[in-house]
Amino acid sequence: MNKLHTIGFFILLCSAYAKAQLVQTSQADSLMLKSIYDYSLTESKSYEWLDYLSNNIGGRLSGSIQAQRAVEYTEKEIAKFASRTELQSVMVPKWTRGTPEFAYIQLNDFSTINVNVCALGGSIPTREAGIKAGVVEVTSLEQLAQIGRKEIEGKIVFYNRPMDPTKIQTFEAYGGCVDQRYSGAEEAGKYGAVGVIVRSMNLRLDDYPHTGSMSYGDLDVENYIPAAAISTNDAEKLHTYLSLDKNLQFFLKQDCTVWGDVESYNVIGEIKGTKYPNEVIIVGGHLDSWDLGDGSHDDGAGVVQSMQVLETLKKLDYQPLRTIRVVLFMNEENGLKGAREYAKQAKAKNENHIFALESDAGGFSPRGFSFDATEDQMKVVHSWKKLFKPYLIHYFEKGGSGADVGPLKDSGTVLAGLRPDSQRYFDFHHAANDTFDAVNKRELELGAATMTSLIYLFDQYGVVDNSMD
Asked: Distance between CA atoms of 157 and 147, rounded to whole angstroms?
C-alpha cells in the first residue's frame, strides 16, 4: 500500500512539474511575441525598404533593369543581418509593354468613346495600325463553343464575367473568374477571333485596367491573338453599348514584345541554426512585380515583411535552433521560374525544409494564416492561437499557402500563407494604383510581426512528423 502511495505521489509530482513547465514555456513565448511586436512597431525597417523599392526602383517586371536593381538592393540590405547571402541564378521570361495602349468603342454614327485598357502580360502586339472589329460578349470560356466559329471568326471576344461580390474570401472570387484572363486568348484563338478584351479582376468600379499573366497554351503560333484588360467602368460601358448596338466596332492598339529568357536571381539570406542547422525554415515573397504601378502591395510588402523577420530576430539577439532563411523569389507573376528553381536546388542538395511561409496578399492588416498541413500538424498550430489573441490574430485554417512555396509541397514541408484583410486588395492588384502611398505603415509592420512570431514558434517547437496523416 505504501508502495502504491509512493507511485501515485510520484505521478502527481511529475504531472505538476509538467504543468509548471508548460506554464513557464507559455509565459516565455508570450514575452517573446510581445518583444517582436514592440520592435516591429517601433524600430522596423520594412516601410523604409518598401519606400526604396517602390519609389527609387519602381515596377520590377521579370527580366527588367528594375528587377536587377531590386536584386542588388535587397541582397545588400539582407547582408547587414544575415550570416550568409546568395544570389541563386534562374532563367526568366522577358516581356515588355512598349508604348501605352490605346482603345476606343466606335458607334454606328462613327463617334468614338475612348476606354482604358492595358495589354496582358505575355500578349503579342496588334499590327502597327491596330485592329478594329466587331465584338462578341461572353461570360465564360465554355460559351465560345455554344456560339461557334461562324459568329466569332474575325471578331474581338469580350470576356465580361465579374468577380463575385458575395464571396467574403476575395481570393475565392478572383479564382472564380481569372481563367478568362489566363486562357481567354487561347480559347478565342481556336475559333478565329482577332483579339480578346477581358474585364479587369477588380471588385470595385473604377478606371484602372488590371494586367496579369496570360497563356496561349498549345495554340499554334499563327493563331496567337492580342489580349488586353479593360477597366471595370469601361467593361460596364462596353456591355451597355453592346446591348444597344450589336454591330459596334472596337479598336485596339498595343505594341508589346515577347523576348527570350534572360538570367535573373532569387535573393537568399539566412541565419544558421544553433541546434538543428539542417532543418530549414523559410519565409519569403516575390521580388518581381507588374510594371503599371510600383508593386508595393504585390509583392513589395511581402518582400520587406520577409526581410523584417530575420532583421527582427537578429536585433532581439534571438539564437534560432533551426536555420531560418529568407527567400525573395523572382518571376512569380509570369512564370514561377524562381520558385521552381529554388525547390529543384533544395531537392538536389537534399535540404530538409520543415516549414515555409509566404506573404503575397498585400500589406493590409494581418488576420492570421492558412496552412497546407496535416490534421496533427494543425493541432500544434491551434495550440498557439492564444498567444496571438492579444494582437487580434484569429485566423488559423487549413487551405492554400502561396504560389512560390508551393513547389516545396512534394518534399513534405508544412506550408503557410499570411492572410491579411483582403477586402481592398483587388482594388490595387496588377494595376497602376498599386503604389507606395496605398500601403499603411502600421498595417505593414503588424504583418511582419505576425510572420516573425509564427516563424519563432515553428523554430522553437518544430512540427509533427510530416509523414503523419
From this structure: 11
For residues 224, 228, 229, 235, the Cα torsion angle rounded to the nearest 10 degrees is: -100
Q: Which residues of the chain have pLDDT under 50?
A: 1, 4, 6-23, 466-469
The Cα–Cα gap between 297 and 439 comes to: 7
Distances (CA, A) of 157 to 121, 122, 146, 362: 18, 18, 14, 31
**Whether 455 contacts 399, CB under 8 Å:** no
- Closest-CA residue to 290 (of 208, 370, 232): 208
The strand pairing partners of 91, in sequence order, are: 263
Place of cell 509570369: 334
Omega before residue 299 within 30° of 0, cis: yes
Per-residue pLDDT of 357-413, as tens digits, reads 999 999 999 999 999 999 999 999 999 999 999 999 999 999 989 999 999 998 889
User: Which ranges of 168-325 does DSSP label H, i.e. alpha helix?
Assistant: 170-175, 179-189, 232-244, 301-315
Q: Is residue 328 within 8 Å of residue 266, measured between CB atoms?
A: yes
pLDDT tens-digit series, residues 49-91: 999 999 999 999 999 999 999 999 999 999 999 999 999 999 9
Q: Which residue has the cell 511586436?
A: 37
- The answer to whether residues 407 and 342 touch, using CB atoms and an 8 Å cutoff, is yes
